[in-house]
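Hi support team,

I submitted a single chain yesterday and got back a structure, but I'm not sure I'm reading the token output correctly. Could someone confirm the output below corresponds to the sequence I sent? I've pasted both exactly as they appear in my results page.

Thanks,
R.
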Amino acid sequence: MNTRRNGTQEGSTNWIGGTMHEIGDVLNLPHNKQKASENWISLMSRRNHEYNKNQENVHLTKASAVTLNNNQVFNELKAFNYYTEIPTHKIKSLRIFVDNTNLYINSKFDASIEINDVNIYNDPKTSSNDGNYNSISWAATTIINNDSISLVMPLSDINEDYKAYPFELKLLFCHINGNSSYQNFQYQFINNKPDIDLNVFEVLEIDKSDWPVHNFSSEETIGEGANNGHAIQAADNN
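Hi R., thanks for writing in. Yes, this is the structure output for that exact sequence:
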């Protein structure tokens, strides 16, 4: 297909949806599918060729849109070092659980580069090389106190046909320099519910640097190295 300068087109338009999809790949957009409740087609899923038949029925998911928000091509931040630093994150607390209606995620985290969105992908592994095209996406765009998210995902938004397959749940942390970091979890549907229940607490370390040893029954002062075996090492954080 060729587009003239006046906006008219010549040649076949059969591949315009696929071409736009490939541009999305170049712009770091993961493959992802619309929710079951959404009556349209995600550009980054399969069937994007429907664009030539009905342009109004092919869209970017919210997860794709917020990813583009941090892309250097679209972001309005000036003199910013995009992509140069590889970001890291640390989960301080994480709660993932389900009831008969929803899948819930609450998390608190630290990051080496600011996070302004967390995308969550529920990906049915229909085959070993399915390309993640069926990955159903949510976006947590509200970062609570700059370090936490809380998200509710209706189970009805996951296609019934996929519930026979094992799932991968991916938390994709979107950093403001355009890069991302992620955390993966596996689950499957049992009795129409995900069998996932995680509760990771934040561990608050107490400073033990000035803790003395008042008494001990025995210690190994030789044969264990310069420090190991000494009673004081009971408070060495190991």
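A quick pointer for reading it: The chain has a mean pLDDT of 89. Let us know if anything else looks off.

Best,
Support desk
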